[in-house]
Task: inverse folding
């Protein structure tokens, strides 16, 4: 791990260069950067703006730090009128980069803004300004959140009626959940799931709130915090579905936004993260969700964003064998292959498209027939050729080809004649694709050298 220094240490060296060696500000910064980088110091969180070194008596002036101090004084004194300007400065500075956000965080921006949030509850304009500043501060540094903030934000979500305030509150909750498992658990224990579902129900006509709530629910199912050995993503998804009755709520809202592709796509992606159990998949189909998704997919097949999001939820639903059959019976396989051809240049669509074909053909020889009748193997291989440097596409393509022939070996010959062996062998140069590529080559009847990783000799496995 690279060594780090404080902003003050960096500022002192820059100011020393200016005063002692009569360097220009630009040269002083460049020299300081070279010195620290030569020592292996990580400067990614250090503000290196020349405009910051023009203060009185040679002291570095950081606008965000000054604005935080001024805001704190304004709130403590009850002189709220200047607060708007200070909030704007804090937000603007935090929006520049992570270094400024970290600098603000180290100078008590979070407790000062929380204090302001409590003071401005009755003033919607200042309340939205404070929430906006908090969103900018928390973007990429969710560690600033504490228990007091969790309680305050959920209280605000439950009590406030203004749509702008609700949107910003949900966004702030989402930002403080990304890559932070402890924050997610704290919110869930404080009743966030039910609060979000109630917000969704009360403001279903507001597209911006629907979008933010959908995203926030999805973030609760993330497992993205490398600091914890395992998270509660699966348990959170179950809670959202079982206690919040979220599947029904989301599908009902989907029906109201059939003309808004952006909102529908968000809802589809969230549904895909929630169907973590077989019965949840069945519930979506029983509620008419599969028909709705396929219809939207077909109507918007030329829109790569909604195609990608529809494929994501279809792949998740296809974990249930009955739904696999329903998708293929409804013409879903042909639609997926057409979408792959339509958006062949987009690696994200190619990857999720191949993954969906792989899921639909798993243990389903009848579905493999539909793929081959529509030259699906050629579509998959074309995607692999175009994205030969994309490991995700190659991995999913290998899995799809392998599943097609695993229970329908009669298709080995036509697939090999199309040049599959050479493409799959190219995929093997990526370590993450090697297992899937070897499995595909094996089931296609090609020669593969397998390594015996352990032979039982020279001692036994550790118990």
Result:
């Amino acid at each position: 791990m690279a060594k780090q220094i404080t902003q003050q240490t960096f500022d002192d060296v820059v100011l020393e260069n200016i005063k002692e060696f009569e360097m220009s500000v630009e040269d002083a910064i460049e020299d300081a950067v070279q010195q620290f980088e030569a020592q292996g110091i990580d400067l990614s969180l250090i503000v290196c703006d020349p405009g910051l070194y023009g203060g009185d008596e040679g002291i570095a002036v950081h606008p965000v730090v000054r604005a935080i101090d001024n805001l704190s004084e304004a709130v403590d004194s009850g002189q709220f009128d200047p607060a708007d300007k200070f909030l704007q400065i804090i937000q603007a500075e935090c929006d520049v980069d992570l270094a400024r956000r970290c600098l603000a965080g180290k100078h008590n921006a979070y407790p000062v803004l929380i204090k302001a949030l409590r003071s401005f509850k009755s003033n919607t304009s200042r309340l939205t300004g404070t929430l906006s500043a908090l969103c900018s501060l928390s973007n990429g540094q969710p560690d600033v959140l504490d228990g007091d903030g969790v309680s305050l934000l959920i209280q605000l979500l439950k009590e406030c009626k203004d749509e702008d305030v609700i949107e910003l509150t949900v966004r702030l909750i989402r930002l403080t959940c990304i890559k932070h498992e402890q924050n997610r658990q704290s919110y869930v224990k404080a009743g966030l799931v039910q609060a979000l579902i109630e917000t969704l129900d009360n403001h279903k006509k507001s597209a911006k709130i629907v979008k933010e709530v959908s995203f926030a629910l999805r973030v609760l199912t993330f497992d993205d915090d490398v600091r914890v050995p395992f998270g509660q993503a699966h348990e959170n998804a179950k809670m959202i579905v079982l206690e919040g009755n979220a599947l029904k709520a989301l599908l009902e809202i989907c029906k109201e936004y059939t003309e808004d592709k952006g909102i529908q796509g968000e809802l589809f992606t969230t549904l895909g993260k929630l169907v973590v159990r077989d019965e949840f998949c069945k519930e979506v189909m029983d509620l008419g969700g599969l028909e709705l998704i396929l219809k939207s997919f077909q109507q918007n097949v030329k829109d790569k964003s909604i195609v990608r999001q529809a494929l994501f939820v279809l792949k998740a639903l296809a974990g249930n064998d009955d739904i696999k059959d329903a998708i293929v019976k409804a013409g879903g396989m042909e639609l997926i292959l057409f979408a792959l051809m339509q958006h062949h240049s987009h690696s994200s669509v190619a990857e999720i498209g191949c993954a969906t074909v792989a899921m639909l053909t798993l243990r389903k020889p009848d579905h493999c027939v539909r793929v081959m009748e529509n030259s699906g193997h050629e579509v998959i291989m074309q995607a692999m050729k175009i994205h030969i440097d994309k490991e995700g596409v190659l991995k999913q393509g290998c899995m799809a080809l392998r599943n097609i022939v695993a229970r329908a070996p009669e298709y080995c010959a036509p697939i090999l004649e199309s040049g599959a062996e050479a493409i799959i062998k190219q995929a093997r140069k990526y370590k993450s694709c090697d297992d899937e590529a070897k499995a595909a080559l094996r089931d296609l009847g090609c020669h593969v050298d397998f390594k015996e990783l352990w032979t039982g000799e020279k001692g036994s496995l550790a118990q």
Observations:
- Residues 341 and 368 are 18 Å apart (CA to CA).
- The radius of gyration is 27 Å.
- The longest helix spans residues 391-406.
